[in-house]
Amino acid sequence: MTVITPPETATLAAGPAAPSTAFWRSRGFPLIPVAILLFIAFVAVFADVLAPHDPQIGSLARRFRPPVWQEGGSWAYLLGTDHVGRDVLSRLIFGARVSMIVGVTAVLVAGVIGTLLGILSGYLGGWADQVVMRVTDTWLALPALTFAIFLAAIVGPSELNIILILGLVYWTRYARVIRGEVLSLKQREFVRLAIVAGCSKRIIMWRHILPNVINSAIVLATLMLGVVIVTEASLSFLGVGVPPPKPAWGLMMADGKKGLMVGYWWLTVFPGICIMLMVLSANLLGDWLRVKLDPQLRQL
Amino acid sequence: MSQEPLLSLEHLSAHYVSQQGTRVVRAVDDVTIRLGAGETLGIVGESGSGKSTLALTIMRLLPTAARIVGGKIMFEGENLVDKSDREMREVRGKRIAMILQDPMASLNPLFTIGNQVGEPIRVHEGVSRANAWERAIGLLKAVRIASPQTRVAQYPHEMSGGMRQRIVGAIGISCEPRLLIADEPTTSLDLTIQAQYLNLLRELQREHGLALIFITHNLGIVAKMCDQLAVMYAGRVVEQGPVSRIFNAPAHPYTKALLGSIPRMSDNRRQLTAIDGQPPDLSSLPAGCSFAPRCPAAFARCRAEAPPEFAVDDGRTARCWLAAPGAAQSLAAQAAK
């Protein structure tokens, strides 16, 4: 006679722990990157309170002070001062504001333009699709940075212009991805049902297509945030970005690059670290979101 | 039929034309069908015989490569072929509704059931959201969904397959259409749900006086559901008439072969019966009857000349020279020679 061992009823009855609906408790949530991004956002919002000095006014008497732990550093200027004696830490804090505003708004501008054109092009097809996709092809054939410099040279540098330029340069990435999604959504039965139910194209695009592509747009936005911030920094570094004396991280690196050879390393290294941390965090968050919101994986 | 039929297709043709205009696929070719109010018409045929294209033609939803090249679609006294896109949107969902091949995937995963059942009502009757929601609850009740008050606020993934099926049915009847076209609505369902769903459709039909067009390749469903039957082959209706008469005495060899290929419990044959050969390429149809190459009863005339529709008996037609008046005598005469 065989002995039938009962299945582990105790554990079965208890079952796996009820899956938490809390977003930050889901598997693989990138806690540190999100914390860094939130910290940068916090710093950007409260820059006026947090910064120990005015970021735009310096004194030549205390130029090139090293960070506090080096010979000649002082507690008043934790991360040293630059070539005109401005406090590096304060400039980094205000630079966070520039990076956040420019980065997030430019991503939004690009996202809205790209998503709308992607939906129109994918759903309507025909000549609308041809026009949007050929423009996209042309856009993607141009090197993004060169194109941005070109645009900046035409309209002149200002914070608003940089946002618009970055939006104009990067919307094509969205258009491509969203159009692809729409092409497959268009074949789905629920879209066809809406058609046979007599919905107009406008209603179908607005009510049935847009909500289904918004996830992809969000994932793309987090991934694009890194790209946009680097481009903004590069433009500032090249002198066609946020105009001085506004503190932008890229601009700070550009200003400090001459000092690098004579030992004033803090002028370039600290903004560099800030850019790297922000971009890396945005990308890690984007990677996680991509898996988390993937339509195929979502239902698991 | 004494009074005006609800839907009457008259010599309707819809062709796919290649971009250069060199290849023409006659997906629907010279189809004439009449359907009275409250009647059920079954359309059967192999894959690629033009059944689904016929449904899309009636809805005026052909893909861009295809167009209606001739004929009329008379629906409640109006010719749908002449209507503009905007006018057709008023017809779709309101006067003619359609259930798609895969009702399981027909619901948008992001919206509540109430929103989706109420959508055609909002689109066509311009009622408020709250009003549509109330009507949606009533419709869920009509398709026998338990506790519609709670179900209406739920999302598609919270429903079982059978329930989603019923919900799609509810969307179909939401604006009280006169005609419901069901394009293979049960192919993706298992058999028990299939039977339930068919019963539901029948009940809805009876209660709302719907005319139903049932597109399928399942002759069992036709026998159970339909009054009238149209058999399609290569874009044409080769035989049509009352279901019982066609099942008892098929006039067209293709219908005969289709009926012969249904496996029966009483059979003790080792192999299933199949129809030899392949359905023809719709872009290069043979000169005569398109079934002639596969037809066991084909003779010289079949390969030379396509047969028109002959009246076989009351209300039944067949596109076959064998059904031509006096065909039997002339065949006998030929055999005697």
Verbal overview:
The complex is a heterodimer of chains A (300) and B (337). By secondary structure, chain A is mainly α. Chain A has helices at residues 9-14, 31-45, 47-50, 88-124, 126-141, 144-155, 159-186, 189-196, 201-237, 249-260, 266-292, 295-298. In chain A, helix 9 (201-237) runs antiparallel to helix 11 (266-292). The model of chain A is unreliable at 5-20 (pLDDT under 50). Chain B is of the alpha/beta class. Helices cover 34% and strands 22% of the residues of chain B. Chain B has an eight-stranded mixed sheet, sandwiched between helices. The radius of gyration of chain B is 22 Å and the shape is globular. Chain B starts with 6 loop residues before the first strand and ends with a helix. The model of chain B has no long low-confidence stretch (mean pLDDT 85). Chain A binds chain B through residues 125-126, 188-190, 192-200, 203, 207-208, 211-212, 299, and chain B through 59, 61, 64, 89-94, 97-98, 100-111, 119-120, 123-124, 157, 168, 171.
Element layout with pairings:
The complex is a heterodimer of chains A (300) and B (337).
Chain A: H1 9-14, H2 31-45, H3 47-50, H4 88-124, H5 126-141, H6 144-155, H7 159-186, H8 189-196, H9 201-237, H10 249-260, H11 266-292, H12 295-298
Helix pairs in contact in A: 2-4, 2-11, 4-5, 4-7, 4-9, 5-7, 6-7, 7-9, 8-9, 9-10, 9-11, 10-11
Chain B: E1 7-17, E2 24-35, E3 40-44, H1 51-59, E4 66-75, E5 78-79, H2 85-91, E6 96-99, H3 113-125, H4 129-142, H5 148-151, H6 161-173, E7 179-183, H7 191-208, E8 211-215, H8 219-225, E9 228-233, E10 236-242, H9 243-248, H10 253-260, H11 300-304, E11 310-313, E12 316-318, H12 327-336
Parallel strand pairs in B: 3-8, 3-9, 6-7, 7-8
Antiparallel strand pairs in B: 1-2, 1-4, 4-5, 9-10, 10-12, 11-12
